[in-house]
Write a sequence for this structure.
């Protein structure tokens, strides 16, 4: 099926979120034959954890959560200097509820979080509530020099339906009087915030190959047709992800919240696909054992619900004996006392700016958990004792460049609209029970 | 129309189309030299004269802090990527414009640093390319960093070269040095007439014979070589061969700068044959035997010293006459290889000798 300009339907959908805007949205409506249920009138049953997505997302045959395929990150600056006022809080909450009424909370519907940066909390005289670990972003490897994102807030919109992401965005900008047949409020999120950046992306079987043409430097026909990510392998295995419980803040006024790290990683797919072979890619992404023993078929769906890192030897051994350590092999070292990973990946690929990249969005109870995980991934300890380089043969570090980093707090739902730095203890019970 | 005339006209037309067309249109000589240069048949498992030697041009040098940076260019070329003992032939891609190379050194001691280099290239339109260069070794350049890069066309580019801290150990003269990253900014002008007219030396009948060409003389850059046998400190214990690399083993005793602890220190200094090119990025270990019993075993720590360059070392309690020393290569030098080095330093047997 093609439209009047000859753009095949599937081709159009993949790029629609990247393009955005009202035209892309209305064009999507005609192309995606999906009837997305509206959300409830009464939203009071919605979980306090904004990040509680797993319960409403589909799972694959192995029990792995299937990440929502279309993504949008709206980077926002609060228009007012100083501390926010109650009117603005009401407007933000009202705007968010508008899109929640329009689309049900599900994979084909809409999933969203609103998060706030350390720079936002600097507006307050008092420091951020104790028990929230939210430092300013910093370089997380001695060889990287990223720029730091310091918008006040980031809204993350996710859906398996492209038009939902686009429609929600348009409504938040005040461009929709009705959305999915539901009347939208008169107020717009963008009345309170200015949009400073818009990052888009996708994840899911086949999407990277379909999007490859939108980015320069993606080698033609090299990204496997069924791969969920540009680098050709599946990620987000159940056993390699922290649970939502593990990443949730347990106490204090921001209990039920989480912290979020978002980095933009540029991918060098030319080196990955044209200069390495399949053995090297398997060894570097997983571990040399997997490459030697043909453990991985295709994108790795056959691995089941884990990346089977237990089969790999310890990093220091493979580093000395094989001259290479795998990304998963290194990262798996960052675990808590109960053997759980520390971070919950909700990352996705992108062709923003015409460049193949990865928006690495991760949730964790404390930003420190992310820092520890990244430190394990750096493998500095391994490089000091082996022929493994700072980047070369050191997982996938050769192929990624950290361009931007930002830290955010995803507060509980009741505090998602311009939270104070020190919320009152009972804040979670007072706001917005009507609507 | 000869090739030079074509290039000049191409330059006048400008733009990526002309450039990417160059690879396909310049005629058999150049295209074959870049895309799939002749590979010698029956290559020895050793350093050998390749069929051709690619010329190299200098874009310039600069300093940042106490580090020197050099940026060099050649036409895109084939190289071999290495993971463990497994190599991948990297062929020139149709959109590759230039083979970009970099070297980094300590300006105080003129010591070449094995620190991974990343480059970010931009022009007036914004960023056009960024990559993490591969550590490499080639016959006329020795140890350097490089990769084939696609550029959108001829013209002026800004480039930022960035390195992290030195990942190896270092001896006391380097205490506290190279512990942080450093970045240098340079400019270069990509001119196909300049880069694509660099000399291609054909080695004719020499091709395939064991040996190699001399390193290019580069006045502005320290040579990536390690000391001669006679320049090594202490007592030379052994000169061994493994995978065609020369491996010198020396012992320093008494007061020395190589470790904090007392006792003799074993220095292992591997290098290429013929040119003494440094061989960083190896994993080596040593076992000492006395009367049939292992009396010590351990890792030879990769290290950097202003006089020795890249070397591997280990502190010992003692070493006596008639002790045997066995040095095992756990990982061969993890360096991408240009033609002439891709069959050497891969299958590396242990060396063993008795202390005299």
């Amino acid at each position: 099926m093609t439209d009047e300009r000859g753009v095949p339907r599937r081709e159009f959908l993949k790029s629609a979120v990247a393009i955005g805007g009202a035209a892309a949205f209305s064009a999507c409506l005609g192309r995606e034959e999906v009837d997305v249920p509206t959300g409830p009138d009464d939203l009071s049953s919605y979980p306090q954890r904004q990040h509680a997505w797993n319960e409403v997302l589909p799972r694959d045959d192995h029990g792995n959560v299937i990440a929502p395929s279309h993504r949008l990150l709206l980077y926002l600056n609060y228009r007012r200097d100083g501390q926010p006022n109650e009117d603005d809080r009401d407007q933000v909450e009202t705007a968010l509820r508008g899109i929640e009424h329009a689309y049900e909370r599900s994979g084909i519907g809409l999933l969203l979080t609103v998060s706030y940066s350390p720079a936002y909390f600097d507006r307050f005289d008092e420091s951020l509530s104790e028990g929230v670990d939210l430092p300013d972003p910093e370089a997380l490897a001695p060889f990287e020099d990223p720029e730091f994102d310091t918008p006040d807030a980031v809204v993350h919109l996710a859906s398996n339906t492209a038009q939902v992401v686009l429609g929600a965005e348009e409504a938040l900008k005040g461009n929709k009087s009705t959305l999915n047949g539901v009347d939208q409020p008169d107020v717009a999120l963008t009345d309170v915030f200015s949009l400073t950046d818009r990052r888009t992306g996708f994840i899911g079987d086949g999407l990277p190959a379909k999007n490859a043409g939108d980015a320069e430097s993606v080698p033609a026909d090299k990204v496997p047709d069924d791969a969920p990510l540009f680098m050709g392998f599946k990620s987000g295995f159940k056993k390699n992800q922290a649970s939502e419980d593990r990443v949730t803040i347990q106490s204090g006024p921001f209990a039920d919240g989480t912290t979020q790290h978002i980095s933009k990683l540029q991918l060098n797919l030319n080196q990955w696909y044209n200069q390495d072979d399949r053995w090297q890619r398997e060894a570097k992404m997983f571990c040399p054992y997997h490459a030697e023993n043909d453990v991985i078929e295709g994108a790795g769906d056959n691995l089941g619900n884990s990346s089977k890192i237990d089969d790999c030897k310890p990093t220091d051994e493979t580093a000395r004996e094989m001259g290479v350590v795998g990304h998963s092999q290194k990262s798996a070292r960052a675990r808590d006392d109960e053997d759980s990973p520390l971070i919950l990946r909700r990352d996705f690929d992108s062709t923003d700016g015409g460049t193949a990249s990865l928006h690495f969005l991760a949730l964790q109870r404390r930003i420190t958990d992310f820092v520890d995980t990244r430190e394990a991934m750096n493998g500095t300890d391994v490089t000091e004792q082996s022929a493994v380089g700072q980047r070369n043969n050191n997982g996938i570090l050769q192929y990624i460049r950290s361009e931007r980093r930002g830290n955010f707090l995803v507060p509980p739902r009741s505090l998602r609209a311009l939270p104070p730095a020190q919320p009152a203890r009972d804040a979670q019970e007072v706001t917005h029970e009507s609507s | 129309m000869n090739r030079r005339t074509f290039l000049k006209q191409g330059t006048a037309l400008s733009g990526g189309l002309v450039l990417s067309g160059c690879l396909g249109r310049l005629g058999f000589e150049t295209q074959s030299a870049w895309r799939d240069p002749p590979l010698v048949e029956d290559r020895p498992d050793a350093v050998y004269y390749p069929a051709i030697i690619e010329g190299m041009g200098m874009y310039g040098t600069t300093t940042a802090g106490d580090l020197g940076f050099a940026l060099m260019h050649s036409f895109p070329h084939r190289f071999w990527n290495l993971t463990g003992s497994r190599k991948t032939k990297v062929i020139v891609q149709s959109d590759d414009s230039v083979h970009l190379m970099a070297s980094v050194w300590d300006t105080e001691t003129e010591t070449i640093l094995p620190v991974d280099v990343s480059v970010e290239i931009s022009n007036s339109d914004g960023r056009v390319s960024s990559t993490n260069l591969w550590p490499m070794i080639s016959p006329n350049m020795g140890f350097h960093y490089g990769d084939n890069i696609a550029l959108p066309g001829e013209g002026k580019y800004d480039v930022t070269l960035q390195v992290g801290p030195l990942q190896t150990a270092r001896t006391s003269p380097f205490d506290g040095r190279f512990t942080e990253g450093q970045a240098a900014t340079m400019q270069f002008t990509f001119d196909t007439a300049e880069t694509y007219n660099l000399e291609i030396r054909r080695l004719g009948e020499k091709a395939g014979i064991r040996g190699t060409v001399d390193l290019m003389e580069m006045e502005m850059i320290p040579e990536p070589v390690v000391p001669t046998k006679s320049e090594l400190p202490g007592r030379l214990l052994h000169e061994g061969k493994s995978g065609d690399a020369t491996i010198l083993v020396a012992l320093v005793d008494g007061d020395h700068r190589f470790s904090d602890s007392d006792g003799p220190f074993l220095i292992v200094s591997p290098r290429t044959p013929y040119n003494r090119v440094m061989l960083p990025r190896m994993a080596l270990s040593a076992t000492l035997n006395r009367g049939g019993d292992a009396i010590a075993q351990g890792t030879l720590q990769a290290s950097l010293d202003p006089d020795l360059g890249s070397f591997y070392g280990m502190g010992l309690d003692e070493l006596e006459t008639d002790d045997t020393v066995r040095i095992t290569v756990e990982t061969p030098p993890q360096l991408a290889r240009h033609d002439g080095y891709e069959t050497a330093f891969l299958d590396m047997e242990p060396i063993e000798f008795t202390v005299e």
About this structure: The interface with chain A takes residues 81-86, 88, 90-91, 93, 115-116, 118, 120, 129-132, 134-135, 147, 150, 162-165, 167-169, 180-181, 183, 281-283, 285, 299, 301-302, 330-334 of chain B (CB under 8 Å). The mean pLDDT of chain B is 89. The longest helix of chain B spans residues 3-13.
